[in-house]
Automatic annotation (TrEMBL):
The keyword Transcription appears for this protein: no
The keyword Cell membrane is annotated on this UniProt entry: no
Residue span, SpoOB alpha-helical domain: 50-87
InterPro entries named in the record: Sig_transdc_His_kin_SpoOB, SPOB_a
GO molecular function ontology, one term from the record: phosphorelay sensor kinase activity
Positions of transmembrane segments: 28-47
Protein name, per record: SpoOB alpha-helical domain-containing protein
Keywords on record: Kinase, Membrane, Phosphoprotein, Transferase, Transmembrane, Transmembrane helix
Leader peptide range in chain numbering: none
Amino acid sequence: MKHTAIRLAVLLALGVGADKAHHLWRLFFLVLLVIYAWQWATMRGYAATVEIHRRQRHRYANQLQVISGWLQLGKSERANQFLWEVALKSVQSTVGKLPLRWAFTLVRLDALAERYGTILWYEGLESLEPRYWALWGLNRAVRQAILIADGNPILVVFFRTSFLVRVQGIKRLPTKHIMGVRWVWDEHTLTGSWGRRQETLG
């Protein structure tokens, strides 16, 4: 928080300098302002990447502990089941031929879900046609679902040009409207859909 305040103060000072200066000095302050803003944005991206990596390492360590526990109890079949159904699935869920922006967003959402004590499951990534507006809607819809999931797992199902976000066990709708996302609550199950084709799950 302290570092953010300092950076904002520097940006404000550069902005005032650019506004009050004349001729070449104004250009000088504008160049400094752009460089500083770009550097700040870059560092925020680096910080997010480091946080994602830290949380993924923490998750994998927890999963290894669970597998080790089952093996110590002599329940190798249960350990093998956990390995294939949970551990490997969580690793493979975001693997695919996705654009970098899509892959990075999915991993960030994964880390955010872990921070709030829930887990994301992705299905149908192989059928998705990545588009910017779909990513925009997905990022906001999943973030809303994470905030109200109360630890319940979140299922994201992708279709060619649309997606569904489903959370079971919750009793309320998101309070913030997202353009293009339609939320439906039925019997403690929240389903959000995005895209021209409002597809449903069986």
